[in-house]
Design goal:
By secondary structure, the chain is α/β, with parallel strands linked by helices. The chain contains two helices and eight strands, in the order E-H-E-E-E-E-H-E-E-E. Helices cover 16% and strands 41% of the residues.
Length: 128
């Protein structure tokens, strides 16, 4: 088994694409208008098998935007260069919640996406 996609609810798909591509450095994998009501939008960090399916909420689920994981970290992303991420985050006014800080496993920081979900970006200590 392997994870294929994880859905993230968004108010505005075009704004979400710009945020994840420009601010988080993800790649736009797919943007297909299937019908008037359905648009498939997928973004992903480079070199990963799983992608994030950006989707508008269904009726009644609007309050879940940015709250899908409660107040917990929604996604953990391993990165090669946390300083590069941090510079990109500052350039695009990403809300840094905590860090960067050093932990036994490496350097990390917590950042919010445009919907309010918390992401942890980790530059891991070399295990060798």
């Amino acid at each position: 088994m392997r994870i294929n996609r994880i859905t993230l609810l968004c108010d505005d798909l075009d704004a979400a694409i710009r945020f994840y591509v420009d601010a988080f450095g993800f790649e736009l994998i797919e943007d297909t208008q299937v019908s008037d009501q359905k648009r498939i939008v997928r973004v992903a960090p480079e070199h990963t098998g799983a992608s994030f399916n950006l989707a508008r909420p269904k009726a009644g689920d609007e309050s879940l935007i940015g709250q899908q994981m409660g107040k917990r970290v929604a996604v953990f992303i391993d990165v090669d260069d946390l300083d590069l991420c941090l510079a990109r985050f500052h350039q695009h006014n990403v809300d840094i919640v905590d860090g960067p800080r050093t932990e036994p496993f490496g350097r990390c920081l917590l950042a919010k996406d445009l919907s309010g979900n918390t992401w942890e970006f980790v530059e891991r200590v070399d295990a060798h």
